[in-house]
Design goal:
The chain is mainly α and 167 residues long. The longest helix is centred in the N-terminal third of the chain and has 21 residues, at 3-23. It is 66% helix and 0% strand.
Length: 167
């Protein structure tokens, strides 16, 4: 491994473990396309990047981020709980220049048109990853999602919908 490659691995680890994963917020309002792109990108990074696959912190952290994107914790709360929480939060206002700029976009273009469904893509990517090293990843998945029973249940639904199993 060259010095450049070792620095790249170190920078990726720092970026994911100290910036992306701890500061990830599922509270962002994402359009369906933004959610799809985010999930596909994180799934590719999680399932195709050797450094991430071998990391005991980055891999589970990315899985939790993906599941928080697909299954927000607010989805399990009642409408009254969400409204009470929203009332406690600070209002963020945007000026009209920002609104005009946001609305003048030429429409969203899908950067991953070959992916029909982000949930099916995630399920198939995880199944392929698990098949490459049987027995390793199902335990990591279970421990990563241990604090999110709704995430475990939803992931099982994604796998069933894709017609794949994790080995």
């Amino acid at each position: 491994m060259t010095l450049f490659e070792s620095e790249r691995v170190w920078m990726l680890g720092k970026l994911l473990s100290q910036v992306w994963i701890p500061n990830f917020s599922n509270r962002l309002v994402l359009s369906p396309l933004e959610r799809k792109v985010q999930v596909v990108g994180m799934a590719k990074l999680m399932c195709e990047n050797l450094e991430v696959k071998e990391s005991p912190t980055m891999w589970p952290g990315l899985l939790v981020c993906i599941m928080e994107t697909l299954v927000p914790e607010d989805a399990s709360k009642s409408k009254d709980e969400v409204e009470a929480q929203d009332n406690d939060e600070e209002e963020i206002a945007f000026d009209s220049a920002f609104s005009k700029l946001r609305m003048t976009g030429s429409g969203e273009q899908d950067p991953v048109p070959e992916v029909a469904s982000e949930t099916l893509f995630l399920a198939k990517s995880l199944a392929d990853l698990c098949a490459s090293q049987p027995g390793k990843y199902p335990n990591m998945i279970a421990s990563a999602l241990a604090g999110r029973p709704s995430g475990q249940k939803e992931l099982q639904g994604f796998l069933a919908q894709a017609g794949v199993t994790l080995v």
